[in-house]
Design a protein that fits this description.
With 465 residues, the protein is α+β, with helices and mostly antiparallel strands. It contains 24 helices and eleven strands. The radius of gyration is 29 Å and the shape is elongated. It binds adenosine-5'-triphosphate. Adenosine-5'-triphosphate binds at residues 73-74, 86-87, 89, 162-163, 167, 207, 209-210, 213.
Length: 465
């Protein structure tokens, strides 16, 4: 928070302008309404006995060291929704290293990796399973959008530093109260009501990346912005809060967004949250753009299916689609700030793409068509295909180029030509290029047909020694 005091000192973080009526809060279930025994049973059912026993061991070990341990954050949210939790995060109210090392003593087979810089540890179990441990902390934001100053805290301070109520719940692993449910901000009720709510009024100003995190959660769990939170979002946008964020932090969040398989839904949400300026200068014609994005995702999947070992920057395909009808300078400005490898290619593709359909239609030889496709980067090719139906001349031509023509090379290389008596230099380069074209046009197949072709073209004498 942009106050002089740590966020934890806010006496009632839930009361702020535009929030739901106070009655809403009296309806939020207290911890007692989800008893520890029930949580225990649910953990056993959802996560299985083996993991439950591991959590018991950590709870006992931490308690013996006087450092209570909790399940916290996204895994609690996912657990309450009976969804698989990909990462299990534990918050420790004391010395993380001591707990992690005590859990990894022989003969458990558990390996511990401690990261002193972050004060975090990873416990790696013999079956490959891992748990992430972090120290409970207090965060203080010295300025809007600045990185927080961090100091050790307890579980209460650790929960209030979090982004949304649905991510600010914890479950105690302490042997005395294993399964106790901590939900000071009503995250469980918000999950039930499908509401996305921040914990305090300065949340988005402190850390605008939360806006894009929230958008992802909204799409993933079909959440609505709670009224007060919507007001805070609008206020933060009025203050142009994203302008204070570094390009690297903004790009990290945008990249996560673009990588969502449900990207069309995310862009619809982005539209509703009025966040287009992050990606492009104007609001697009939404329906057409979403259809192209979907086509783009199809093309990306097509490519990964046919070329599983080849790298493709999927986000470059999507950005090219997003920027096709925007001024080039708008794309350039964004790429100037975002650390996106391959940004240069996007800009050159944006220059070339408009000319491509006419040029492709005019191209008379397969080699001419291939040369046109070759002028685009891989993401640029797929972005162009996204503008056309799955079955149609342009898509067919693009797929043919990628599958058949792209890998074709001249059967003779520079060394072969020199061995045949051609002098090194620019002329040799031209001959190589013509040979490549002849291969693309199906006029030559191998070294012998290439040699005969060179003779026919008068490049080699008809009688060779
Ligand atoms: P996912 O399933 O996408 O990983 P997650 O909630 O676990 O969801 P993480 O990015 O792993 O997402 O973050 C773990 C937890 O850390 C969150 O649940 C949230 O409580 C907290 N958190 C992460 N980023 C922020 C942030 N920018 N501001 C406040 N709290 C955050």
């Amino acid at each position: 928070m942009t106050t002089d005091k740590p966020t934890t000192t806010n006496p009632d973080p839930l009361i702020f302008t535009g929030h739901d009526s106070p009655d809403t809060y009296s309806a939020i279930p207290s911890a007692g309404q989800l008893p520890a025994t029930q949580i225990h049973q649910m953990l056993q059912q959802q996560w299985g006995e083996a993991l439950l026993q591991r959590l018991h061991v950590i709870g006992r070990t931490a308690a013996a060291l006087g450092t209570p341990a909790y399940l916290v954050g996204g895994c609690v949210r996912d657990f309450l929704q009976n969804r698989p939790a990909p990462d299990i995060d534990l918050a420790i109210e004391g010395d993380v290293r001591a707990v992690a090392e005590a859990c990894s003593t022989e003969p458990s087979g558990v390996q511990c990796t401690y990261h002193p810089h972050f004060g975090t540890a990873i416990l790696q179990y013999p079956d490959g399973f891992q748990l992430d441990l972090a120290r409970c902390r207090i965060e203080h934001y010295p300025a809007p959008a600045a990185l927080p100053e961090v100091q050790p805290g307890d579980i209460q301070t650790d929960l209030i530093r979090r982004d949304f109520t649905i991510n600010a719940m914890a479950i105690s692993l302490d042997p005395e109260k294993f399964g106790d449910f901590l939900d000071p901000y009503g995250g469980r009720m918000d999950l039930q009501r499908r509401l996305l709510r921040v914990l305090h009024p300065l949340s988005f100003l402190d850390d605008p990346t939360r806006i894009l995190r929230g958008l992802r959660f909204a799409v993933r769990f079909q959440l609505q912005l709670e009224t007060g939170t919507r007001g805070l979002l609008e206020g933060a946008l009025t203050q142009d809060i994203f302008a204070r964020l570094s390009g690297a932090r903004l790009w990290r969040e945008l990249k996560y967004l673009l990588e969502l398989s449900d990207l069309p839904a995310a862009l619809e949400e982005l539209d509703a949250w009025q966040l287009w300026p992050l990606l492009r200068p104007t609001r697009p014609e939404l329906e057409a753009l979403l259809a192209q994005i979907q086509r783009g995702q199809q093309e990306i999947n097509w490519f990964h299916y046919h070329f599983p070992d080849e790298n493709l920057c999927d986000t470059a395909v999507l950005l090219t689609i997003l920027w096709r009808d925007s001024p080039w300078a708008a794309a350039e400005k964004r790429l100037h700030y975002w650390p996106l490898a391959g940004g240069r290619h996007i800009l050159s593709d944006l220059h070339l793409l408009s000319e491509m359909p006419v040029a492709l239609a005019k191209a008379s030889h397969p080699s001419a068509v291939a040369r046109l496709w070759e002028s685009l980067s891989l993401p640029g090719i797929l972005a162009l295909l996204a503008e056309y139906p799955e079955t149609g001349a342009i898509t067919e031509s693009g797929h043919y180029y990628l599958l058949k023509q792209r890998g074709l090379t001249s059967p003779l290389n520079g060394k072969d030509l020199q061995a045949m008596g051609l002098a090194p230099g620019p002329q040799l380069g031209k001959v190589l290029r013509r040979l490549h074209d002849a291969r693309l046009d199906g006029e030559i197949e191998d070294k012998e047909t290439a040699r005969q072709w060179l003779i026919r073209q008068g490049i080699l004498p008809s009688i060779q020694p």
